[in-house]
Amino acid sequence: MMKLKGILFDFDGVILNSMKQHLIAWQYAFKKENIFLDDLEFYLLEGRGVKSVITDLCRKYELPESLGPKLLKTKIDYYDRNLKVEFFDGFFDLLKYLKTTNIQLGIVTGGHRERVDLIVDKYLNGQFKVVVCSDDVKNTKPYPEPFLKGIELLKIKND
Q1: What is the pTM of this model?
Q2: Helix/strand/coil (H, E, C) string of 32-69?
Q3: Which of 62, 107, 114, 142 is most buried, most CB within 10 Å of its CB?
Q4: How far apart are CA 130 and CA 155, in angstroms?
Q5: Cross-strand bridge partners of residue 106
Q6: Percent helix, strand, coil in the chain (nearest 5)?
Q7: b vs e for 129-159, b when ≥16 Cβ sit within 10 Å of the residue's Cβ?
Q8: Alpha-carbon separation of residue 132 from 9, 95, 107 (angstroms)
Q9: What confidence tens digit (pLDDT) does each residue in 39-72 have?
Q10: 3-class DSSP assignment, residue 108
């Protein structure tokens, strides 16, 4: 039987109960372009990096690629101004249990480094050995690059 050596957690929607807040921020950004972003449409993109999300949404709504950075900034600014940090029930109990094991913990997220680090530093007190954000890789989730980087940083070998 293989021994579990590490766990890579997603951040938004797994550690942080934040997906509704992200949806509202994306809807706010696209409303300025007279586009209503449907809940299901957004949730189908969940887990991807913000660069991938904005590229796909601009393509879908036939918006110029050059508008992407502006929409992304609008979304991020709105989200950051309205952020309510809320962890899922039982999350800290799970961390407490995992601390009693030799399992290494990391975060792999499509979120941007500045926001994630603020929350991790303030609330998670060094519980995670590594944090890989969309800023750290060329190809964000759903590509495997962020997970492979997390495994590499945790120095986990498949033996």
Answers
A1: 0.87
A2: CCCCCCCHHHHHCCCCCCHHHHHHHHHHHCCCCHHHHH
A3: 107
A4: 10
A5: 8, 130
A6: 50, 10, 40
A7: ebbbbbebbeebbeeebbbebbbebbeeeee
A8: 10, 18, 6
A9: 998 888 887 778 888 989 999 999 998 999 999 9
A10: strand
